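Supplementary Text 2. Reproducibility record for the structural model of the 498-residue chain.

All settings were left at their defaults, and a single model was retained for analysis rather than an ensemble. We include the record here because the model underlies the residue-level annotations in Supplementary Table 4.
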Amino acid sequence: MTDTLTTHSMPGRGDAEAVPFDDRGDAPTGLRRWLAEMDRLGELRVVEGVDAEASIGHVSEMLHHTEDSPAVLFDRIPGYEPGWRVLVNSLGNRARLAATLGLPADIGTFALCDAWGRHLDEAVPLPTEEVAEGPITENVMTGDDIDLWKFPTPLWHPEDGGPYIGTGCGIITRGRDDGIVNMGAYRVQVHDERTTGLYISPGKHGRLHRDGYFDNGEDMPAVIVAGLDPLQFMASGLEIPNGVNELEWVGGVQGSPIPTITGRFTGLPIPADAEIAIEGFLRHDKERIEGPFGEWTGYYASTARPEPVFEVSAVYYRNNPIILGCPPEKPPYEAQRFQQYGRSANLKREITAAGIPGVTAAWTHSVGGCRLFNVIAISQKYQGHSRQVGTVAAQVRQANYLGRIVVVVDDDIDITDLHEVIWAVSTRADPERDTIILTGALSGHLDPAIHPDRKGTNSRMIIDATRPYEWRDRFPPAIGPSTEVKQYTRDTWSWILG
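Retained model, structure tokens:
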């Protein structure tokens, strides 16, 4: 197929009827309610006639690496039913992220982190509300009618092993023994009409659930939700407290329970206003080559190898369904633009929960995929304080998987500014004195720096870039205003820059 552009773009016009977000004649719900709001805010563009294999992936990469680019809804995709759509870059800027969380559009960086931290600590999960039907049951395919090729699933990167319907997704599983429901974001490759891949990295909740079934010689029931409300997608892609059902947690955040239907074959809850839900079983005794796939590290790091096959029992979808796409790209890409806030808040929260005082801020830099390069600011309280913070920060749940570098700085450093962070490393850290190496930490198949035959663990580097506690009073004073004065100056005098 090739592009057959008929409408290059259609800016939001403050009119929810400008784009057919809901075809039931009702008020939009789920992802469509979000689309109507983004259209009202002027944050959405609609593009028609873009080829799913040749161009949607390239356009997505351009959007991810362009500051403040809009969300884009692709429609009339050549070779597919008109109205069967793909949405990309949904949470690619702070304005859309803030609107999704019900926060002011001009909210500051750490205010947004604090808001997410409060959700983690204070949101009271609300049990989902079971309903007999919803928009997701408008169409149901079972048996020989199942055909995953009907959906306009993009080839996101030229060297991918096939189209991936699961990128901006939530995979719903239930623990075999404890019954706890989890929803995580894992990649899903379409193999054929009725089977997909479902790769889950070691250590993830879904992988622990998978191991529980597979170790007992059983298949794992699961539901792949490929068109989520963006707040639900955020919950599936970030670390929510252990033992908490992400759907119930989102209900607590938004103040109302999520309506769910019960899967016919798995008994799992499925959001009733989702766009596409693929129900079935991950086989413990059947594999197929999966990948390669361009991953969040910026590499085809996991190659193609045998992975368990997901056999589809049923496909539920709305009229004119929408795939939510969030393909990994070289950092920073869309997911990291919202993950940097959630993961930073959680990292600070977990270090503080370990009983360590004086942690003023944490930042998981998007250039490191919000995992590989983390910076912690502290107000030093005692000898060894900075080393304690660095060591704990490298091992808490938030930073454990595929971590690489932790930098600890004094609280006069703007940890979101790489220039200031590297200045602190260059001028306050002595390599021999202030570098610590840990070995045997949790890594995985996606780690590009580990030899292909040795993937599983890696090492961590901790850099203490604080003023040495023992002689901090004799350390040369830094020039320039404090971070508070800098912000005041920008707020007061930024008109000069225009």
